[in-house]
């Protein structure tokens, strides 16, 4: 297909497609003349993936580039998901040293009891979680942190569901792409379901 067809099929404007090509986010098409190239269904899929990562997942283009680089770099699905999680985590906010020390101890104890291992790729995720726990303590919301083990149990079940989505796939490319989508869009889906459930429960419990 030509550039115009690629744009129409993917829903991405021609100018944006050209920008992605220049930035290396989209592989070059098959050159048919000095000014023309032919594109395939793989290009459509890549554009839809970029669109999902930016528009739904909320990732900046710099992070999208890192994620796509991991995909194209023939990393294992596990390592690629680690890259995705770190880009989703972003930069941890600053909290007081005292609260961070308390939160780090709480989290380390929970991970030990659940048999979770801390690996270097997860450091940004852990730093963000420590910051969130520390902030809860500083706000006097210990009730939230007191239920941390129960939240961890729920998180493990969600993670099992996420992995089940890709467990039956045989293509490495499909495993990585599906796992990526499950991680990025799964966060948005679960957050949306949680908010709907909160509305229902709060209506029943807190309305009076």
From TrEMBL:
Keywords noted in UniProt: DNA-binding
Identify the InterPro entries for this entry.
Answer: DNA-bd_dom_put_sf, MerR-type_HTH_dom, MerR_fam
| tRNA processing as UniProt keyword | no
Q: Which residues form the HTH merR-type domain?
A: 1-70
Q: Name one Pfam family in it.
A: MerR_1
SMART domains, per database record: HTH_MERR
**What residue ranges carry the coiled-coil annotation?**
none
Q: Which GO terms describe its molecular function?
A: DNA binding; DNA-binding transcription factor activity
- Its name, as the record gives it, is MerR HTH family regulatory protein
Q: What is the lineage of its organism?
A: Bacteria, Bacillati, Actinomycetota, Actinomycetes, Pseudonocardiales
């Amino acid at each position: 297909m030509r550039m115009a067809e690629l744009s129409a099929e993917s829903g991405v404007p021609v100018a944006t497609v050209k920008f992605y090509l220049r930035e290396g986010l989209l592989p070059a098409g098959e050159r048919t003349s000095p000014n023309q190239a032919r594109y395939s269904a793989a290009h459509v899929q890549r554009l839809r993936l970029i669109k999902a990562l930016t528009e739904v997942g909320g990732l900046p283009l710099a992070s999208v580039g890192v994620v796509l680089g991991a995909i194209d770099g023939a990393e294992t699905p596990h390592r690629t998901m680690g890259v995705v999680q770190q880009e989703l985590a972003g930069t941890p906010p600053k909290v007081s040293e005292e609260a961070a020390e308390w939160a780090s101890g709480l989290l380390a104890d929970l991970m030990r009891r659940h048999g979770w291992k801390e690996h270097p790729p997860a450091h940004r995720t852990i730093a963000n979680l420590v910051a969130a726990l520390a902030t809860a303590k500083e706000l006097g919301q210990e009730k939230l942190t007191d239920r941390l083990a129960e939240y961890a149990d729920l998180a493990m079940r969600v993670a099992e569901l996420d992995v089940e989505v890709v467990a039956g796939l045989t293509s490495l490319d499909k495993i990585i792409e599906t796992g990526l989508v499950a991680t990025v869009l799964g966060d948005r889906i679960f957050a949306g379901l949680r908010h709907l459930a909160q509305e229902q429960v709060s209506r029943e419990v807190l309305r009076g």
